[in-house]
Amino acid sequence: MSQDELSERWEDYYSTAIRKGLKAALAESSVERSLDTFEYAHIKLNKLMYVAMAERGLHEEMQHSWHRYGGDLGTLVPSASTIKQTELANLPTTEKPAQPGAESKQDVWDEADYREFFLNVSIGSLESLSEILNADRETLLEAFYTAYSGDIEEWVELYLINVRIQEVLHQYDVDGLDSFGEPEYHDFVDVLAAFEQELYSHREMSPSALEAADVDLESDENPADLLTEFLELVDDVYFTIAQGDLDDFPGDLSYQLGMIEEFYHENAWNLVTKVISIHTTHGPNADALEWGSRSDIDQLLDGYRIRMERIESECRAVGLLPGATDSTPPEDDAEGSGVGRDLPSGEEFRRALNGTSD
Q: What domain range includes position 234?
């Protein structure tokens, strides 16, 4: 048996034992529900498996990288529908890989150990399995990014600011929009400005670094540029909401704003995090993970602008974009607020990253 084959068998052992331990913990905890009955179940399963891996120091034993929702174990994470409450006695023992002629691994946890782990698990401020599973997406992600910032120290600030954007984009119900006025808009554009500055501070997003990472892009396909271009549209939409009366818009806005939220998660932010994933791969088959992220970038770029233009058209049709007479966002008394205000442009950032100037 080759070393690569043995590594893959151990990876399979760890992921299987972790999943069985979680099934047993669900059966014995106060949760009393299958995992797939919770909102955002797959994200929560991914985070729980990641935490189990990280707390046991298995970073080089199990494949993972960081994607749009942070640490991600990829194909090691099954469908949440497979994680049902099951008493430990009813789960077969996971067999450890044989290592003929090699010294056996020490202190290897089995499903019983992982059951105990999950019965006492915490992620930051979420102090139990029940709190983790019942948390909303943004609360869980902020707790996870903060607790495991050491795993991705150089990127954690970008992930945390991203959570602030997600929170605004998720409040597209009527009650949430009713409370979104000029003060909230000014806070939001400060978040967008901080996000843009942090995004372009990473040299990995520069054209030269992308080329070095074997990411083959046209000049107008830089993921950071595409994301900030989309956020300019988001800025315009929420400026219009902050200035207007909801009764002035024709009907429910949840369709258009739902499209914005979905595009942010599925396309714009997702595209940028595929670049991050290339630089954060670990464990067996790391090369395959990198290749998968490059392939994902190609797929996400296909039709990106067409989908974005459709969102813009839908928003314009219901008056969610400022007209020619009111297209300038209101001035803010606080110095430096507003997207890109008192910040270098994206083009200036790119020139700085590449060591060029006018």
A: 154-353
Domain boundary among 83, 110, 137: 137
| Short-list 70, 48, 57, 56, CA closest to 121 | 48
Chain center to CA of 330: 31
Residue 318 CB-half CA count within 13 A? 22
Write out the two tokens for 191: 């978040």
pLDDT tens profile 26-84: 999 988 788 999 999 999 999 999 999 999 999 999 999 999 999 999 999 999 999 99
Angle 232-238-244 (CA atoms, 0-180°, nearest 5)? 135
Three-class SS state of 73: coil
Last residue of a domain, one of 108, 137, 166: 137
CB 140 within 8 A of CB 40: yes
Residues 236 and 183 in one domain: yes
What's the half-sphere exposure (Cβ side, CA atoms, 13 Å) at 246?
Answer: 14
- How many domains are there within the chain? 2
339 domain residue, yes or no: yes
In this structure, which amino acid lies at residue 97?
A: P
Q: pTM (2 decimals)?
A: 0.86
Give the phi and the psi of residue 76 in degrees, each rounded to 5. -75, -15
Cα-to-chain-centroid distance, residue 99: 37
